[in-house]
Amino acid sequence: MTTLPNTAVPNGTDLPSRLVDDHGRSINYLRLSITDRCNFRCKYCRGGPETPLIPHADVLRYEEMLDLITVVSELGVRKVRLTGGEPLLRRNLPWFLGAIRERTAGLESPLDVRITTNGSRLAAMAGDLARLGVQWVNVSLDSLNPQTFHEITGVDCLGDVRRGIDACLQHGIRIKVNAVAMAGVSEAELPGFIDFAKATGSEVRFIEFMPMGENSQWSEANYLPSRLLLDQARELVSLTALDRKDTGGGPAKVFRIDDGPARLGFISPMSSHFCGSCNRLRITSDGRLRTCLFSDKEYRLRPALRHPALGPATVKHIIEMAQRGKPLGYEILQARQMQQSVARKQMSAIGG
């Protein structure tokens, strides 16, 4: 067994997880895609030819997702992030959030449920999210300039996204903004994002562009290493590095801006991997378990969920067995350096 340095603390709880892989990593975080539909066409996510959408009959029902959440909770997962596609496109999402609360009410440590969204429908739902106990929302937002936003996403709704962020803040929901770092774009956006973080007391995180999907738009020309943005940020403001234990763990290197509440973070899967502290699993909206973002190996959970003689007990066994062989993503990345894409599927199909 290769034991890697544990450079992050568990997300949301210090309770031990039953899921420990062959590299000694404790798994306590699930990213669950509830739909592969999205109303944006971001060039880094869906920039190539359209990937066929998953047939509705193959998308997990909410009741099946509740069974999955129950299973992983029993195994020690304490943080669940709902993703897409765009999760706010899924009908009856408030009902689902309420059902999660009811299903996990008896846990020794409350389940931390968060959402990642493009923000376009957030304004109308912020009140419901707050009422249902959602305390954090991550908004994918790569530009504060309407024209650049349109060029990246293919839609003209930056105003809707900004109104959604404001609505969340008004309801007491804390915001993190995720921006994909792209050369020729993010350098110009950085000053505006720093001002945004300071004005709202929020955290803005830049994530290195990853070559995901067979038709990825990634290239060396548009790849921007985090260290270059960090150097630029240091010229604009005073940054104080925060310990990972003070930021909830996770892969981001986070800095406090000018001794205030605002934060700036950098996630560097390409230039400085964090595989030693990876604590997450991913399940796609059609019920496929992925133990590593960069690995195309998937484990089909939906057939077991829908089989009358199998069900959650078999799903639990599959997850326990699969996570033991959770690979090291940086090794997959290094092995494919001469190829454009790392994984065959686009991010919208994986769930981010």
Q: How would you portray this structure in words?
A:
- The chain has a single domain (29-350), classed as Aldolase class I (TIM Barrel, Alpha-Beta Barrel), CATH 3.20.20.
- It contains 12 helices and 12 strands.
- It has helices at residues 43-46, 62-74, 93-103, 122-131, 146-153, 158-170, 186-200, 226-236, 302-306, 312-324, 329-335, 347-350, and strands at 29-33, 79-83, 112-117, 136-140, 174-181, 203-208, 239-241, 253-257, 263-267, 280-283, 288-290, 299-300.
- Helix 2 (62-74) runs parallel beside helix 3 (93-103) and helix 4 (122-131) runs parallel beside helix 6.
- The chain starts with 28 loop residues before the first strand and ends with a helix.
Q: Would you tell me which CATH topology applies?
A: TIM Barrel
The overall pLDDT, averaged over residues, is: 88
Largest sheet: 12 strands, mixed
Q: What portion of residues is helical?
A: 25-40%
Query: What count of structural domains?
Result: 1
Identify low-pLDDT runs: 1-14
How far do the termini sit from each other? 28 Å
Structure classification: alpha/beta
CATH superfamily: Aldolase class I
CATH architecture: Alpha-Beta Barrel
Compute the number of strand runs.
12
Please give the order of strands in the largest beta sheet.
7-8-9-6-5-4-3-2-1-10-11-12
By CATH reckoning, the class would read Alpha Beta
